């Protein structure tokens, strides 16, 4: 029978043998998968694992600095690269969801490529790919039910890098990855983090992206997510986030009429993201969160809660 301890033991041994004293590059995202892959590889090859953590400017509020510190605290050999401007400039004026994804994928490859050239003599590229990523990208490229969205977790690096690929979590489901992470002693809060899409807030800002919109959505998202934690709801939800809608609506503030932005909150239960149900969050929580958002985030005067399941709706709005 499969156990996380046995998986760690055999995988670390395999990685040692496979990689020897060659250097490995790994892109950390702040998520569970890449973090577990990194710790596993670190256990096998130590400082020969070179981690790169890119800030694309589309992460949650304070995420880049907080997570970078956490990685450093775990003893990982990690370089934080703030490429926010490169991503946001590249996205300027773009409102098509798939083009936004492609732009982010392309800029990521450029930034990652630049950074990986700084690691002399690297032979390997490690990825935190898990089993559902493999399935989704297969159906995205050819299956009869070709998926609607292009995920950039799988592949996507330029051929000329010619690195050998190592994917230690490729056969695992998310819950198994979490168990492996626990067996490796990784912090519970990190392992329990909700999934977050690679393109980040770009696909939660419907339409074109500006720095101002990113800042607004980061505040809204922070109030929502912190609220879920404060109310003991965070761990009961598989994934949650806020969407900034391309809609202004009329409101009143004091004697003034306002015409401001609307945000949608989304929280879902799921096991693998392929199907999902909206979460029946307590009305008192929604009431408090809505008030906090409208009172504290300038530019937002309306909050709605998404009660659609997947299918037919998707988790993200783009
Ligand atoms: P959807 O919106 O397709 O999302 O129901 C299913 C899961 O995938 C995440 N997602 C993405 N992750 N790149 C990613 O790395 C993407 O382009 C992307 N689109 C959606 C989404 O957050 C959810 O967990």
Automatic annotation (TrEMBL):
<dbReference type="GO" id="GO:0003922">
    <property type="term" value="F:GMP synthase (glutamine-hydrolyzing) activity"/>
</dbReference>
<keyword id="KW-0436">Ligase</keyword>
<feature type="domain" description="GMPS ATP-PPase">
    <location>
        <begin position="2"/>
        <end position="193"/>
    </location>
</feature>
<comment type="function">
    <text>Catalyzes the synthesis of GMP from XMP.</text>
</comment>
<protein>
    <recommendedName>
        <fullName>GMP synthase [glutamine-hydrolyzing]</fullName>
        <ecNumber>6.3.5.2</ecNumber>
    </recommendedName>
</protein>
<feature type="binding site">
    <location>
        <begin position="29"/>
        <end position="35"/>
    </location>
    <ligand>
        <name>ATP</name>
    </ligand>
</feature>
<comment type="subunit">
    <text>Homodimer.</text>
</comment>
<keyword id="KW-0547">Nucleotide-binding</keyword>
<keyword id="KW-0067">ATP-binding</keyword>
<keyword id="KW-0658">Purine biosynthesis</keyword>
<keyword id="KW-0315">Glutamine amidotransferase</keyword>
<keyword id="KW-0332">GMP biosynthesis</keyword>
<comment type="pathway">
    <text>Purine metabolism; GMP biosynthesis; GMP from XMP (L-Gln route): step 1/1.</text>
</comment>
């Amino acid at each position: 029978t499969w156990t996380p301890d046995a998986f760690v033991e055999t995988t670390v041994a395999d990685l040692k043998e496979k990689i020897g004293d060659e250097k490995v590059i790994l892109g950390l995202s702040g998520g569970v998968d890449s973090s577990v892959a990194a710790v596993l590889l670190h256990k096998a090859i130590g400082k020969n694992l070179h981690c790169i953590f890119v800030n694309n400017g589309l992460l949650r509020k304070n995420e880049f600095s907080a997570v970078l510190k956490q990685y450093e605290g775990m003893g990982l050999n990690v370089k934080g690269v703030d490429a926010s401007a490169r991503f946001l400039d590249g996205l300027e004026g773009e409102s098509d969801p798939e083009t936004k994804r492609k732009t982010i994928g392309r800029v990521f490859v450029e930034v990652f490529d630049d950074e990986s050239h700084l690691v002399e003599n690297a032979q390997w590229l490690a990825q935190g790919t898990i089993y559902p990523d493999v399935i989704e990208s297969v159906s995205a490229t050819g299956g009869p039910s070709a998926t609607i969205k292009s995920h950039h977790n799988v592949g996507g690096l330029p051929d000329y890098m010619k690195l050998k690929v190592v994917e230690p979590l490729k056969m695992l489901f998310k819950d198994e990855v979490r168990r492996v992470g626990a067996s490796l002693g990784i912090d519970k809060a990190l392992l329990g983090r909700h999934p977050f899409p690679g393109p980040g807030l770009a696909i939660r800002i419907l339409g074109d992206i500006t720095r101002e919109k990113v800042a607004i959505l980061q505040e809204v998202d922070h109030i929502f997510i912190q609220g879920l934690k404060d109310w003991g709801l965070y761990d009961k939800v598989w994934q949650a986030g806020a969407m900034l809608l391309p809609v202004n609506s009329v409101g009143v503030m004091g004697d003034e009429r306002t015409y401001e932005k609307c945000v949608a909150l989304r929280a879902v239960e799921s096991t693998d993201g392929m199907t999902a149900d909206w979460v029946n969050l307590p009305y008192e929580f929604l009431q408090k969160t809505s008030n906090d958002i409208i009172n504290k985030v300038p530019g937002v005067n309306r909050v709605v809660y998404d009660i659609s399941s997947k299918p037919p709706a998707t988790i993200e709005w783009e």
